[in-house]
Amino acid sequence: MKSHVRTLQIAFTYIGTIVGAGFATGQEILKFFTRYGHWAVLTILLSTILFIWLGTKMMVIARRIEAESYEDFNRHLFGEQVGSTISLFTMVVLIGVNSIMLAGAGAIFQEHLGLHYQTGLIITLLGSYFLLKRGISGILQMNSIVVPLMLTLSLIIIFNTFQIPGAGRFLFLDNDRSLFGAWMSPLLYTAFNLGMAQAVLVPMARHTEEEKSLVWGGIIGGTGIGFMLIAAHFAMSSQMPGILKFEIPMGSIAVRLGTVVQTIYLLLIFLEIFSTFVADIYGVAVQLKQRLPLSTALITPLLMLICYLLSQFGFSSLLSVFYPIFGGLSLVWAVKLLRTPWSSPPGSNTSSNSKEKGNSIVSVKPITRTTRK
């Protein structure tokens, strides 16, 4: 029973880390999938396979090499120097994206609840701080509540879409965009999101006792992400092309489902933003703890302060700067992960710092963790 619970917690955390503001509003799905018409179903299937394969592989490798943070993991993929440089850039992007998440939370409080923008920021920061004091267990428990609600809402949206004209259009939508763009989109989408998710998935994997839980957690989590992608695409396709004019496409669909569902959807957008923000802050704090002679209790509020200051620039301006830069790097990262062999499990004959093949010995350089002053 404990193993099954842990598997579900891993799956839900995987989903909750991937699903953020762009996913919840529908903008990401519209941009990367729905606008490509009849190709969208196949590209969503490709993205789902990649989420299952690469997400599971990342967690299993992280556990086997005992990576404490995504910096350890990147050093394993790229080597000491390149891996360290990539991790530094990833940290900068994560802080920027966390600021975007925080700005989005403030916008929800301002636009939908009639509260001040700063009030939304402060409430989000305080909630994150108290949750992060519980460490990785707090993140697992939070996603165990939030993600089932997301999946339930996806089911409600699917059942409602079946009842309206044009429900089958998702299979036959016209596409006037390039075939190359259609098939590059799922690769970029998956790579970008996995590049972000490593901040929490790597340390979570390191502290998971059974590898089987990671494997099944990755499979269930990747499948769940694919299900939510197809549910949102199915709903938005029935409203094409009119839905393209909405800033929050999924919000326009939630409005049709009544006040109760609309309120639940609004709450879930905030919780999805909140869960991603908490997970990313945790991952960056773990990495910084390896680099700085400071405690997590000090690093976490300092990170939040930086995010708060950056969030004053607004949601759109930050989004346009950080996302495109990280997209290209993430694609390189995903290809490298795809080509990297699975590390041998700790304790096996081939996983100590050397492995024997015939009469030769191939050295395996261990991951070293140093504190830089």
From TrEMBL:
The chain crosses the membrane at residues 12-30, 36-54, 85-109, 115-132, 144-162, 182-202, 214-236, 264-285, 292-311, 317-335. Keywords: Membrane, Transmembrane, Transmembrane helix. It comes from Paenibacillus odorifer. Residues 343-353 have a biased composition (Low complexity). PANTHER family: CONSERVED MEMBRANE PROTEIN, MEMBRANE PROTEIN. Residues 343-373 are annotated as: Disordered. This is Transporter.
